[in-house]
Amino acid sequence: MTSEKLLELQLTDSHIDLLRNRMPKLPEVVASNGADAEVAAWGRTHAQLQGRITELEAAITVSEHANAAIAIKRSRLEQQLKTVIAPREAEALMHEIALLNAQRSDLDDEELAAMDSLSEAEADLAENAAKESLVRDAAAVAAERAAAARAASEADIAASTIVREALRSEFDAEMLGRYDSMRLAHNGVAVAKLNGLRCEGCHLDLSRGEVDEMKRAPIDELVECSNCGRLLVR
Ligand SMILES: [Zn+2]
């Protein structure tokens, strides 16, 4: 009687343990974690593209300033060119102007490339932005489902806990202490069934003599497996 009730308590505790262990692995919870990861990935892409756009805009501004500086220098040189008479001086000025033109041409090429990259990044940003509500809505729906699945598990645990408390009230403190410390020592399973010669807790066989002795013991006397120490239900 005692040992059967104890086995019942063990099965209830094992059921509660199983529900708790399963909670983070529930498909709805796993799906919700996945959807949250998608939102995080979306945010990273968004920030990355924004950073790229800021960089390119800054590079374009730098090019424009450099171009403006070259334009000022060139018009000054062109003014000088109108006033010089010596052909050597004119030649030197013309050479400087040609160098400035070459610099400007390089800058223009760089700026054009940056502008191409900028419009590409802006298009990517717009494309990514269009996905935002999709990703966020999916995560919200998944979170709701996960919460519902968790609540169902919690309700199951609560119901089993009521059964557990009712069962525990049938034992005295000493028995409960023994049971609880055994559960701690044996990975949650303190009570096992004796199936023939085999302990269902450690799956090892006891000797025929041990089992015969257990069977002769009074029904209320608790016996332990000589291999694993769990309480055995005959
Ligand atoms: Zn055992």
Description:
The chain has 234 residues and is mainly alpha-helical. It has five helices and four strands; from the N terminus they run ααααββαββ. It has helices at 2-22, 27-83, 87-168, 173-185, 208-216, and strands spanning 191-195, 198-199, 223-224, 231-233. A four-stranded mixed β-sheet has the order 2-1-4-3. Helix 2 runs antiparallel to helix 3 (87-168).
Give a quick summary of the entry.
The chain contains five helices and four strands, in the order ααααββαββ.
Percent of residues in helices comes to over 70%
CATH topology label of the largest domain: Helix Hairpins
The number of domains: 2
| Small molecules held by this entry | zinc ion
Q: Mean pLDDT across all residues, rounded? A: 95
Give the CATH level 1 class of the largest domain: Mainly Alpha
Biggest β-sheet strands, sense, barrel: 4 strands, mixed
Order of helices and strands: HHHHEEHEE
User: Radius of gyration over alpha carbons?
Assistant: 40 Å
What is the name of the CATH architecture of the largest domain? Orthogonal Bundle
Q: Structural class from helices and strands?
A: mainly alpha
Shape: rod-shaped
Oligomer: single chain
The strand line-up of the biggest sheet is: 2-1-4-3
Strand content: 5-15%
The DSSP helix count reads 5
